[in-house]
Amino acid sequence: MQLAASGILSATPGAVELLQWLSIPFCVASNTSRFELIHRMRAANLLGLVGSRFFSSDDIGVRKPDPSVLLLAAEIMGVSARECLVIEDSVIGLSAARNANMRYCAFGGARHHTSRLRNDLRTFEPEALLLNLAELKGLLCPM
Asked: Which CATH number goes with the domain that contains 67?
């Protein structure tokens, strides 16, 4: 989700299409408060696609880089940590994924991402540094 210059929250380009396309279980696990997360997903027209499959650090009382919110999400989704592929746009989030022993990719294509932040994301040696969400489709379904 991104805040446009107009001040209106919008989905990252390609997010709606990606979530509609996914044929594997997915969820959102965020440091954002539950209230704010619902507000943001609703404003970006993502809440209907995510449904109740979202988890907030509010749910467990600790924030990333502690991996607890990711581990809770995996447990409730019924998968092991090693079966997860985490897509994160922050160093703190990548640290949480690594601490959870989950596979992870970095997303560096948000409007607020600078080349310096993308370089910081690379230091975590993600499986991929995605600059747009279409690249994730290619990663999940290689030709």
From this structure: 3.40.50.1000
Q: Show pLDDT as tens, one digit a residue, over the chain (143 residues).
A: 444 444 457 888 888 899 999 989 999 999 999 999 999 999 999 999 999 999 999 999 999 999 999 999 999 999 999 999 999 999 999 999 999 999 999 999 987 788 999 999 999 999 999 999 989 988 888 64
Domain of residue 31 covers 2-140
- Cβ(33)–Cβ(58) under 8 Å? yes
The two beta strands, 129-130 and 103-107, are: parallel
- The pTM (predicted TM-score) of the whole model is 0.88
Cβ-based neighbours of 119, under 8 Å, separated by 6 or more? none
The number of domains in the chain is 1
